[in-house]
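Running co-folding for adenosine-5'-triphosphate.
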Amino acid sequence: MDTVIDARGLTHAYPDGTTAISDVDLTIERGERVAVVGANGSGKSTLQLALGGLVAPTAGEVTYFGETTDAEAVRERLGVLLQDPNDYLFNTTVREDIEYGPAQLGLPRERAERRVASLADELGLTDLLDRPPFRLSGGEKQRAAVASVLAFDPDVLLLDEPFGAVDAHYRARIRDLVRDHDGTVVVFTPSLDAVPEIAERVLVVDRDGSIAADASARAVLTDGDLLADVGLRPPTTVRVFAGLLDDSDVPLTVPEARERLRDAL
Ligand SMILES: Nc1ncnc2c1ncn2[C@@H]1O[C@H](COP(=O)(O)OP(=O)(O)OP(=O)(O)O)[C@@H](O)[C@H]1O
Ligand SMILES: [Mg+2]
């Protein structure tokens, strides 16, 4: 398999002395779907920034595509969605923000325009494209930020809280876009309900910024004790069925839960 991201001893302490991530070793292979979960303040966003080359490690290093430790050399292959969409939208119009990535990459104008139009349609942004980004609602901003990351079709998506302020309809749209992404996806989130729909592998960040577990989605999401130790709890479906079925049978998603109930009723 091709390794896209390899972190060794990755550590980041902020200037005030807060060690946000501590001695993280992880390898992500091409095509993997990974969720990084952890309580508020555990270090998910810092890990995302360090993996995305947007903060420099204070110890350890990250190797990209088995080639380089310089994130700038592979910048156009990394799609980094920051937790706060306001950090992302800085052009005069939403359209310019979404076109920015493809333009930087020198994508042919026609292809870029088609891509922007299709993402705008998918994410309900078509009527908002000529607005200044600061005049959007929170969820609209988030949809625009997701569109601007997907627009240049990066090999690796590093998405911090892509569902944060988004309603159920667009949450499903973003989920489908992430699922359909032809590459590697790493989603950072404190909320476990959406995890089974997007990830097969789950990394759990402990409160001290170390990795507490790295296993299959099922193994992590049905381990109530592990999750409680790090300040999380299993997804709703798992909590409903816990104790009623074996861990290997507990439904992780709503459609799975419906099926189990249909069988039982
Ligand atoms: N700029 C900063 N300076 C100092 N400490 C920071 C800074 N940003 C974050 N921290 C601290 O680093 C730790 C990890 O923060 P981080 O934002 O990575 O957590 P998180 O897991 O993403 O949390 P959330 O779920 O709330 O998004 C926390 O203790 C936080 O207070
Ligand atoms: Mg965060």
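Result summary
The mean pLDDT is 94.
The pocket of magnesium ion (ligand 2) is lined by residues 44-45, 83, 160 (CB under 6 Å).
Job closed.
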